[in-house]
Write a structure and sequence with these properties.
170 residues, alpha+beta, Methionyl-tRNA Fmet Formyltransferase, Chain A, domain 2, two-stranded antiparallel ribbon, 3 helices
Length: 170
Amino acid sequence: MDVAEELDTGVVRCRAATPIGSDESADELRKRLAGLGSTLLVDALARGSAKASHRWANPRGPTRSGERTSASTGPGPSEELHRVVRVGGAHTTFRGEPFKVWQATPCGSPGAGAGELVGDVVAVGSEYGSTSGEAGGIRLVEVQPVNRPRMAFDAWAAGARPTTGEALGP
């Protein structure tokens, strides 16, 4: 893209579209986009592409994270929390110690209070935007307790022995 005074109004010399997987983490996407962008750049340089192919204008600018058109069209709370996990920012506590969730999948409500563990599922609270009262749950797949390496939830649970009803969070 050529440099322009406004945001997203420069001349685009080449582009590619790629889908984002529903379980793809930000790190996985970043690596994939870096490879795709490098390939586009090398191809454009090899062609000697001095002439712009088209102009792409979007002077509106980026949307704020979490912006929704209406509460009823947005994702449910377990999907919202799943997005936080995919970006890599899911930090909480367990028994007062730092605890990170590296991988999880949204699922149905385990019928427990917010943050409570029921097997490998954590009940999601209304603080994640529930408008229907059904908050859902999130199934833990890969976690990292304080001073320990990343591990499968089952491996962590075998050592930590969480009991049903114990909660993640303060």
